[in-house]
Amino acid sequence: MMPPKLAPSTHPPGPPLRHYVRLLLLGLALLGLHVWAWRGIELEVARLLGSAPHMVDFLVRMMPPDLGVFRTVLDAVLETLQMAIIGTTLSLLLAFPLGFLAAGNLVHPLLRVVVRTLLNGIRSIPLIVYALFFVAAVGLGPLAGTLAMALYSTGMLGKFFSEAIETIDPRPVEGVLASGAGRLQALRFGVLPQVWPQFVAFILYRFELNVREGTILGLVGAGGIGFYLTLYMRSFEYGRVATLALIILAMIAVIDALSSYLRSKLI
Fold this sequence. Notes:
Distance between the termini: 71 Å
CATH architecture of the largest domain: Orthogonal Bundle
CATH superfamily of the largest domain: MetI-like
Strand content: under 5%
CATH topology of the largest domain: MetI-like fold
């Protein structure tokens, strides 16, 4: 009597051994990277735990908030908001064309490399350095901070815009071109409808960042609330620092809520 034949297995074969070896090597590399970074920042658990009383002491000194400077701080916060609005708008005007010129699926590769290099160079310089540059160029005040925001934001928005354009479906563009439309019409009716929702999200995100980062530009005299933050910290007026922090927190919360609302309506 012949033994019964076994049915072939329906389970797919597992990954080869080299797959697990690569995962192991990757894990060891990440572990080594974190050990190197841990030692570089001199992170010690005992030191971190021992700092808790100092943190508590700092928070206690901030209570109660000094509301006597509320009006002064509020004016500075509103100035920071004004800087973020104009800075984001100026960066949008610059980044919009640069984003299209940096998209590899729309322009010649050489032009893409040149524009991408320009955007990378703009983005590689810290915001505070731009602020120092414009303070030296146009003097102290919010104009310097606004120009610094605009230039720095251009690098980020231009990169985001170009990457969004490179992920579009080419068929709508080809269809518009096949109907006899020109390149500008192809961009208008084939590209923009696909990338507009992402563009809106990027612009709102950059605006939120500009509001947050604008709080430090006053450190170098470029307007905004950073001037008072430095002044109160150096004079150990922690109650006033608390008032400033609470106003910033409220402003960020409101902006975050408005951004979420606009995203839901526009995207």
